[in-house]
Amino acid sequence: MNKNENDFLEIIDDNQKIIHNVCRIYTDTTTDHHDLFQEILLQLWKGYHNFKGDAKISTWIYRVSLYTAITYIKKVMKERKLNEEVLMESTYEQKDEDTYEELLHGAIERLNENEKALITLYLDDKSYKEMSSILGISESNVGARINRLKNKLKEIFNQSKDGY
Asked: CB within 8 A of 155, min separation 6: which ones?
């Protein structure tokens, strides 16, 4: 292995939690999680030589991970010919699960890809500035979107609680 490969492997080792968190939000099976993780690693490796250090390495990893996850999910949905009704039905099947984490995951599954990206960063305690940099939107836009997301998630929780 050359120095670049060793540096890359060390960076991945130090930041793999980021990648796993993104995979966890965007997938619901171990196989899909593993496949997405591998795809993200591939995209990170492909882009590693272009990383200039203008942003923190974790910001770059989040950005690549989120965009790869969104692309992956769109591809998987197209290949499986899933529609919104099927996704919503699978979410409702989880309404009997009583742990907060499971309820949250079920609610997050109902969000669109951009909302999932934002909630992933929010749940990982990223600052508005970091989220802004990763997503390419203004900090005030991050704040507005988070407030809308919180209200949307409350609505989803209430619907689940009421047996919707």
From this structure: none
